Amino acid sequence: MTFLQLLGRKTKEPNIEIGCRYSRCVHTGLTEKAKVLAMSQDQLGIPHVQFEYRLERYGKVELSDRRTLALEAFRGAFGSIGNMEAGA
To answer: What's the pTM?
Structure first.
């Protein structure tokens, strides 16, 4: 492998799967959580993730609803390796 190929290599991203749970700290004491409920494609073939969204402030649920994002948008928000919760 050449040096230029190493520079262009992407890090392996975790698979987003039904049942997986993700969280991210938005601010001190404020956490967004997502549980993947379903995955689908729209008419143009763009993959989407349907998930249960929860906003928690110091462990208390402030907001809870069901949302849909394009897979890449979901991955950008929740998909980094450090954000996957144990027991998912």
So the answer is: 0.75
